[in-house]
Specification:
Chain lengths: 348, 310
Amino acid sequence: MALYFFTPFIAILLTILGGGIIFYILGFNPIEALKFYFITPIANLYGFSELLLKATPLCLIAIGLSFCFKSNNWNIGAEGQLTFGAIVGGGVALLFYNQEGFYILPLVIIAGAIGGMIFALIPAILKTYFNTNEILVSLMLVYVSKLLLDYLVVGPWSNPEGFNFPETRQFSNSSRMPLLFEGLRIHAGIFLALAAVMLSWFILYKTYLGFQIKVSGLSLKTAKYAGFKGKTMILVVFMISGACAGLAGVGEITGPIGQLHRMVSPDYGFTAIIVAFLGRLNPFGIIFASLVVALTYLGAETAQIFLQIPKYTGQVFQGMILFFLLASDYLLFFKVKILNLKKNELRN
Amino acid sequence: MSLEISFIGILIGSIMASSVPLILAASGELITERSGVLNLGVEGMMIIGAISGFALMVITDNLFIAIVGSMLSGVIISLIFGFLTQSLLTNHVATGLALTIFGIGLSAMLGKNFVGIPGKEFPILFSSLRESIPFFGPILFGHSIILYFAFTLPFLTNYFLKKTKLGLVVRAVGDSPVSASNQGINVILVRYCCILYGGAMCGLAGAYLSLIYTPQWIENMTAGRGWIALALVVFATWSPIKVLIGALIFGGITILQLHMQAIGFRIPVQFLSALPYLMTIIVLVVISRDSRKIKLNTPTSLGRIFYKEK
């Protein structure tokens, strides 16, 4: 069990090592490049605030995904649920673009969560009632939601005074997340993420629903035998997951962005899958993992500025983390096997 | 009248061209999945094939090396997936996703110095026949050799799976790895081979994009085609011939939306672009509803980890 939570650290170390090798091959001084990547971005208060800003959506989405993955539901379309949440939440914010009022932000946030939830229900309903593969459906919907957003920001929702830029009006101040500190971009959305962590810990470890989810993940047959309502559970975990992704989307548009445009998310929905795995689907593990993965985003931006390395290196690091994490799981698997052998020997 | 007919001929020709990467990638993935392995890394392998093909073409100025190199790069990157899932017994879905994310990142890194370089013209076959025969000319002639290969591949794949002993081995491994193993078949080895073959075909599909279809390197240029190819395999219920039909339908929608835009058809571009994705979902619903239909062709052990007790 200790090893289970220890291997993510091995994976991170190996990724840093692998990154160093790649930088060396590309002709950079690996130590210096890694310093630009992992230390420079968070060496000051502003950088640290940026780290939390990027970790917030990753953490929120990964918390939601942990419900799906724990129960063996492969929702990989969180990016689409995020986008649709941003569309619905953004639509509400645009309704109030010239109004102020304390009630606006809560409305926008709730709308976003509901949007994500509805969008996640599509693969869930198709899976439960039509037996379709949720991996493919949730993924296809990512592209559908992105095209819908694209249509809205260039078409009906585009800013009438915006000189045909593909973006909507600016939201009013009442639709914006309150900033936590003057001059930093970190906003109140981080409390949503922390609340999600606490709530998910409570649901997963202290409620009957959480018990059902864990049992279904370990063995579907056992779950059936125990008489759990499998279909309801699938719908519920997808709704939780979609709502979290929708919240992340709303957090982005009411936080740092302040309007709708084509790029509401740099693939946070996909990267959060890595976060969920790296955090071992454990609420507190996910906090840690979201900070690590957020650093790969920041590091990629810093490396692009200082070393002219394309910012896509972030994805190389993210891919490597998951590779190494999965590979190091072999250690665990191997241990399980040895134990089994011993049991057999005892029986003989 | 004759103008319209020749226009339709050209239209069909361009639909065929746009379906080539889908046919190649989906045929490769089909073999991989038939052996019981679900590789979600198609997009990543395609984009790696696209950049390696283009880079090799710029460096060596030799199209043959570029094509072979792109296939090799697909093999190498799929080897990561094979090693993890087959030797280290990792989860197929997660590993495939990692492969796609890694591949997109790595391709952008490798392609940094190749952005904006114009591509080289790829030789086309029978170009004189294309002009001289109305209607059938643009459909049958004047294509690259890769297109002709792509259009025979589903038939070859079908023959391989149904008529050859090796094909039977692949199907046995996918349907019942335990019995196959008991028959003395090296399940892991067969799956490795199928994964690497899938990698080669995805690499080739990527090279088709960067060398022939849009002859240049653009970051993220596969633009979701890998995911469509994955959907296609399910759409075709793991049958190679239906992959060909599905690819033509999806290629057709892509081309049709371009022409409808040109004519000034009053449907927003984005809705037409969303059509292939929505179609895939609808088809998935239709075929999955009938559990007998999907069971008939689905490799039984798809995505499940197999290991041999020692």
